[in-house]
Every structure is written in C-alpha cells, then in structure tokens.
C-alpha cells in the first residue's frame, strides 16, 4: 500500500511537472522565482553595511574597542566569503543532482538561518559571534540560490530571449546590493532584528513557490564529487580572503597588517593552495572547476570583465557610504543616528540607473550580442569615476546624483549582456558549474574590493590625518598630550567610525578632558560638525587613489569585454537527429539498409493538423510504451513491425503543440546499448534532437511551438520551445541513438492548416 501510494504521488508529481512546463508561461515563472531568490540573497549581502551601527548598539559592542574591528569585518565579509567559496561546488552539484533541487534547498536553508538571525538573544562578543556564524549559514543558502539561478533560466529560455531574462535577473541581483542599503537604513533604526526578519516571509513564500512550480528541464550529468578539488579550492580561497580581511587592520604600530606574519602566511599559503587546486582539476576525471571552459573566449573574457567591474562597483559602495555617512550628511546637519537611512536614500540614483539600463541592454544584446553594450557600459562607468574624482568632498547633491545615475547606467549596460554572454557560451550540461564559476569571480571581487579600497583610503588618511587631528583638537583647547594620544588613532578606526556614522571624539577624550573645556568647545567636539570637517581633507587624498584604481579596473574590463568576440551562442552538435549520425543506412529503412544508400538531406515531415475531424491524423493520444517501441524508424511503413537487436529499447512520445493546432505526436525509439530499431551499427548519440517547426500555408516558421519528449510512465524527460525562426534543440535525453517516426494512425490529407516538422538530417 505504501509503495502504491508513493508511486501514485510520483505519478501525480510527473503529471504536474508536465502541465507546468508545457506552456510558455513557465519561462516567466522561472524568471520571477529565480529573480526573487537572487534579489533577497544580494540584499542580505549589503544590508549589514547600513545597519551595523544599530546592530552594534543593539548587542552592546563598541566598534572602536581593540579586537572588535575583526567582528565588524567578519559581519560584513563572512557572508561574501562563504558565497564566493561555495557557489562553484553547488553549481556542480546542480549539474549532477538537479539544479532546481539544489535551488529549492537553498531557499529553505536561507530561510532557516534568517529566522535564527532574527531571534538573537545574546549580547557583547557572544552575540557578535552568533551573528557571524548564522550569517555564514545564511551564506550557504545564498550560494545555493546564486549558483543555480542562472543555469535554471538558461535551461528554460531559448537563446534569442536569454539576454533579456538573464539581464533582468542580473540587474535585480546587483540592484539588490544597493536596495539593501536603503532597507537597512529604514529598518535598523526601528528594530535591528527586522534587518534579518525581512528575509523570513520572503524566504517562506519563495521556498514553497519554487517547490511547487519549478522543475528540472536541463541536462543532469551523473558524476562523483571532486572532493580534493573542493577541499583545495575552499582552503585556498578562504585563506586569501581571510588574509585580505586581516591585512587592512593595524599591526604592531603599523597602519595596516600587511607585514603581519599570519597575514603573509594566509596570502601565500592560499595562493599555493589555489595553484595546487588548478593542478588537481586538470588530473581528475570529473573536476569541480572546469578548466576547459576557459578555452571558450567569450567565457574567459566575460569573467575577467566581471571580476574587474565587481571590484570597481564593490569599492564604490564602501566609498560612498563613508563619504555620505561620515562626512557629507553630518556637515549638512544630519545627526549620526539618521545618517544610515539618508545615505541609502541619497544613493538611489545609482539603483535607478541599473534598473533602467539593465533590461534594455539585455534585450538588445539578444539581437546584437554582448560586446558593444558590455564594453560601452564599462567605458561609461570609467567616465563616471573620473567625474566623481573631480567632485569636491563637500559637493552639490544635484551634480552628485547625476554622476551616480550615469554610473548606474554604465554598470547596468554592462551587467546584463555580460552575464548573458557568459551563460550563452556554456555547453548545456556545464551551465551549473559555469554559472557557479562566474558567480565566484563576482563575489570574490566584492571581498577583494574591500581590501583594495580600504587600503587605498587608509594610506591616503595616514599621511595627513595625525597632524590634522592633533592641530584640530589643540585649537579647541584640548591639552597637547591628549591631542597627541588621539592623533595616534589608527586610520582604519577612523574609516570604520565614518562607515558606522560614528563620532569617536567623546568616547576617546572621556569626561575628564571634556569637563575641563569650555562648554561651547566641548559641544562642538562631540557634535556632528567637528569630526567630519576634520577628516574631510585627509579623506579626499584617499578618495583620489580609490577612484584612480576604479577607473583603471573599468577600462581593463572594457578591453576584456571587447576581446570576447562577436555574438556567440554555444550549440551542441545536433548528432541525435543530425547530419553525421544518419550515415547508418538502417535508419532509413530495410531496403536502404541493404543498398547502403547515402544520407538524405533535410526534408519536411508532417506532424500535425488543425481543424480536422476527430479521426484525423494524430488525434490519438501520445504513443509512448510497448507499442511505440515497435514503431520503425523513418522510412519504414507505419503498419509494419520491425525487429530490434536491443532488449532494453526505450520508447518515448515526441509531442509538438502550438496555439490553435491539435497536439501532434511522433513515436521515438532509443536503443539501450547503442543500437536503435532495425539498426546494424550506429554511433552513440549525445542526447539531443534539433529541427524546425513550420506552418504549411502560408509556409513560415512557427515560433513559440512547444516540443516535449514523454517516456512510457508519462514523465516529461525533455522540453523546449521554438525560437523566432521556428528552430528548436531538445536536450536532456539519454545519450542513445534514436529513430523517430509518425505515431500510428490514419493520415489526413494535406491542407492549409497543416503543421510541419523538419528534423535536421532526417527524411520521412
């Protein structure tokens, strides 16, 4: 009874899957759900930046206390490090076990850890460590979402609409990183736990929705996990990113920790482990990181451009937050408790630019390719960084907003076509691992940018900040000894204070010094004007260096993007029903098998009609089962049974539907050991069928037609739709040779309503 119930549930699940994926609306279900998943994952990557002041106050952590800098950095970077390390592994597992299965699990994991973050009850260091650990768990779920979303979209959409779909998904992801700033500023002042609670209802809804509506339509490639590759990659990348995180912290009187033996060991050891990882990946049968994909120029150039643009974009977020929260807004009269919210609001033009340019460029790249838009976007972004470098620290907001809008447009022009170009370049069975590799570059860029931009700003501050701080304090009546003590404050602490919208003077001077000063001087020192005005000059030096780096990164990204070549979409060789694999005469009938005739060219095969009587051709249900298994290959008479040499012969129904047409069916047989029906010899196929669907009168290609392969149990094993030229490529079938013929039934006379199917290299 239990087995019967389980079988019934499985059958209902297959029927539901077939119904869900049968129409073109399924593509938009996929896009909506995956965009929601990526959006919530990227919002959580940046929401901490704005919410940190309220979180630190909520759990009782002093950000300037020695040792707490590490807690702050790991709250920011822990999530990013985990996603960067795990996306390739989860992408590979998606190729092996099902991309939708991994994606669904990711939504559930992300939701569980969001709940655990929102119920934090501890305080002090214990509370901070709990948040860091839960953020790591949340990052695991985020990695599962980000690793498989692009591959699921690529499986669902035809090549001529992928750019728009991937563009919308990519723009939502990047825009989410900026939306997180606004949401963090809105929610954290009300209740800091709401920063994490925001993800819970979205996660619950997304988990249920993805479980009910998403289905694996891509190719699964059974393989073993590359344990050595996973281990060496994880250790190497974590070591490098951890070394960068600690390298920007002070060490034994040095401004930063790049001379710290632990940091040097982590960086050098991490690089060595990554080199070992590269060697391992060239020697294992089923590598986690497909080095061979780098032979695809569009893939390599796109990922290099993505890495460099990510470093420029990630650093920009930190620079703008410090600039707005720590300097510009306080000088405009905003209290430090208000600056997080308003910093997010004043950065909205950047998000608007993304949202405007991203979908448009993605749609255009479907027609013209990724190169002109991705390259042009990086040039525009570099120009916006030049304009930002020319702005004074105390700028006029209208000019600043216009430059941010320009930067958002440039990044939006780049992001959508670049991601579509990367995914289009991948073989169908490598989309999960390839998408994971691409996301690794993108997420690693954010962590690398933190190290680079913080280092450049700290170096800029180190030269002039001590003198400016000492002279400014003495001018307000602070004793020279106390002023010199404060002037020794590590520049990185000043950067973090600015990042948190925090004035450290009151804490560092203490009540003993402040009580000895005139009331007006003490009020000025602890108010919102002194500290921002004091650091604005030294901060400008760091800004110049940071923007020069961003300009260089964007220009190199533009060159890399241009070198990707023209429009390129990877197409697997159509050998299943293709030109080369029909050299076997038996596939064209018994007479041809004896004569050894040559391979015929493409021809049109009538597979369906519209507006016919109930007994017209193909009015019978799809033929999939033992009867279909006896149906001969093309060229054989439909009323004659032909022997097979393979006892494990598989049978499928090939179903073609189009709006206004009666569903048309073909019988499709596949040999289990390389021998199809009536075949003497045949090469093993690659699990694909390619062709074109056409309407008879007027003779025209039929876009949007749905082609599905259904096995004997009623399960849809492969599914696709025709593109604007009526062409299709049905992938995901077992790697066997196939023979395709019309389903048994009466033949209708040809008329103007007839629907035709042309299979590449096959004639009926």
Q: How much is the average pLDDT?
A: 74
The coarse overall form would be elongated
Question: Hey, roughly how much beta strand do the residues contain?
Answer: 5-15%
Rg, Å, rounded:
31 Å
User: Gap between N and C termini, in Å?
Assistant: 46 Å
DSSP E strands, number = 10
The count of helical stretches stands at: 23
Biggest sheet descriptor: 5 strands, antiparallel
Could you name the key traits of this structure?
single chain, 764 residues, alpha+beta, 5-stranded antiparallel beta sheet, 23 helices
Your description of this structure?
The chain has 23 helices and ten strands. α6 runs antiparallel to α13, α11 runs antiparallel to α21 and α14 packs antiparallel against α21. By secondary structure, it is of the alpha+beta class. Strands 1, 4, 5, 8 and 10 form a five-stranded antiparallel β-sheet that branches. The longest helix is centred in the middle third of the chain and has 45 residues.
Short account of what is shown:
The chain has helices at residues 2-21, 25-59, 68-97, 99-118, 124-156, 159-187, 194-197, 199-213, 227-247, 261-281, 297-331, 339-346, 348-368, 371-390, 397-424, 431-475, 480-487, 491-499, 505-514, 519-526, 530-562, 590-595, 626-629; strands at residues 604-608, 650-657, 664-670, 688-695, 700-701, 706-711, 716-721, 727-731, 738-742, 755-759. It has 764 residues and is α+β, with helices and mostly antiparallel strands.
